[in-house]
Amino acid sequence: MLTALGFLLIVSFLVLVIKQKLSPFTGLIVVSLVVGSLACLGTDVPVATLIDWVREGLFYTTNSEGKVSLGTINPTVMILFAILYFSLMMNVGLFDPLCTFLIRKANGDPLKIILVTAFTSMVVTLDGDGTTTILIVTSAFLPLFRQMGLKLSNLAMLIILPCGLGNCLPWGGPLARAAAVLNVEVNTLFVAILPILGVSVVYVFFMAWIMGRKERARLGYIPGKQVIVTPEQIEQMVTVIHEHDRELKRPKLFLFNLLLTAAMLTVLLAGWASGAIVFMLGTAIALAVNYSATEQRERITANGGDAIAVASIIMAAGCFLGIFNGSGMAGAVANSIAGMIPESMGSHTALMFAFLGAIACYALPVDAYYFGILPVVAPIAYQFGITPTEIGIASFMGQALRYASPTVAWLFLLMNRTEMTFGQYQKEFFKWSLPMFAIFIITAIVTGELPVG
Q: Would you say residue 63 lies in a domain?
């Protein structure tokens, strides 16, 4: 019976979220409470036990050996303050000097402009918000692309591929979701995917270089012999960067904010402290130094919307996972599916999931994928000796193709700004994202993070 209820829980959640009958937050809680109650009634367990399961999913559990497993509260705190922190750094203008310096250096050369566009997108997407990246980068570069006759489809790709990599950062969302499901530290997964992200960043700039060379040839640009963009037009682009939230900029505190960010990332990557603690303390320090008490409250309110939206879903997942695991449904479903997999294929579970996950990432909303599919696949992988980190890496492979999905609402803003139809966008996107997917897979295999047998 637990097996049937487990499948009912997963399928009900997926259907209700995909058909938009429930939001991911309400779906995770309501569906798990209903099916969890049925599990209690069917197994003669007091319904009040649901509260214990939810508490374990949110906070911690201890096994018979006394080993403690953390719930979802840790990644919730981390992503809440990470989003707040990087939103603050965008507010204070931490990345403005480098972006404006590079824009001036581009000086009308199509190749340089495209490379600078890619770099600016990489920087702006650090706060993990795709809509903000689209608005800022298109506002800065769209007039220049039109003035020079550069392809707007290139601009779309120079925005969206960096967004895909930014989404894989600890505060981007998927990493915290995977960490919550797999009961591992966000830092652990982040360190494991760093080589993949590093190689992918190189690929994005290589892509930009190819685009720039083609645009030079198409436009007949000869370095040093043509002036396509006037100094006034370059200053207009710089002005877009400077004027965005101008009243919030803190240029006199640039060095302090830079050192604070560098110190936090060093502590995070070195694993000296939990990401939740690092970003909570960093956010408090950044607010105290950069803004008055009134401004601090305003910044928390203004930037807190995106943070709360993601954090609330991670906490709701604690309810879902606590009931799914505590009731025994997770183990029953895993045993049922694992029994259908030939022993000879079991060691390839992570690699198979990497490819199947790419399809699921495209077809499903992100919460449906991480909270509907991953909790089923992970216990199966464990039975074949695959670690939580390895199956977590496998679940990330599909992020290379994620932004082809029509379930990502803000993609249509990008298409509108760059004057592309969805068909044109997908054709261009897959041309550049499929090689990135191959890079994800190959790098993960080479670094040993994705077992192949």
A: no
